[in-house]
Design a protein that fits this description.
- By secondary structure, the protein is α+β, with helices and mostly antiparallel strands.
- Helix content is about 45%, strand content about 20%.
- It contains 4 helices and 5 strands.
- Strands 4-3-2-1-5 form a 5-stranded mixed sheet.
- The longest helix is centred in the C-terminal third of the chain and has 36 residues, at about 95-130.
- The chain is flat, with a radius of gyration of 24 Å.
- The relative contact order is 0.11.
Length: about 150
């Protein structure tokens, strides 16, 4: 049985919200799944991703194939990097503690980068609001609105 890690769409029309699930490749997109491993909300800035790293890593080790979007999400959250580091431990290139130190260092840098981007976005939004010209309400005159 081919197992895929993919997105399962929820939410209303033009307001998507996704579950990240592990499912049989033959199952329909929003149908039966094996396990839910996280959520993805693309409408927030930055996009909100909640993922159980350990479950995702276990499924990758079992051979589950992520779709392109899920692969990008896993990469963003560091699951693929952690899998890469654990492969290095298995090959004897370094020990488990070194791998965890490397991952923690990457994770701290990544979180700082995300916070920096979010703050830059907020600053940009504030500047746009301040630069936008004030909208004036057009009032109807009694003379100009008389239609016979």
């Amino acid at each position: 049985m081919a197992v895929k890690m993919r997105l399962q769409r929820h939410g209303s029309k033009k307001r998507p919200f996704y579950f990240i699930v592990v499912a049989d490749a033959r199952a329909p997109r929003d149908g039966k799944f094996i396990q839910k491993i996280g959520t993805y909300n693309p409408l927030t800035v930055p996009a909100t991703i909640q993922l159980d790293r350990q479950k995702a890593l276990d499924w990758l080790h079992k051979g589950a194939q992520p779709t392109d979007t899920v692969r990008r999400i896993l990469s963003f959250k560091g699951v693929l990097y952690l899998k890469h580091l654990l492969r290095g431990v298995k090959l004897g290139l370094f020990d488990d503690a070194t791998a965890m130190v490397k991952f923690q260092q990457w994770h701290d840098e990544h979180e700082a980068n995300i916070k920096r981007r979010a703050e830059a976005h907020r600053q940009q939004q504030r500047q746009r609001r301040q630069q936008a010209p004030a909208v004036r309400k057009v009032e109807n005159n009694a003379e100009g609105s008389s239609e016979a």
